[in-house]
Amino acid sequence: MPGDRLSAQENTTVEVRGTVVDHVTEEPLDGVALVVLDSYGQHLARRTTDENGEFTFTVKNRAGIQLRARRIGYREVTTPFLPFEGRDLFVVELHLDTEAVPLAPLTVTARSEAIRRPVLSHFDDRVEGGFGWYFTREDIEEIRPIMVSDLLGQVPGVRLESSGRGNYRRTVTMARSSVGPGGGPCPVQIFLDGRLMTRGNVMEVPVDDLVTPEVVEGIEVYRGLSSVPAEFLTPSSRCGVVAIWTRRGDR
Question: 46 lies in which domain range?
Answer without folding.
Answer: 12-110
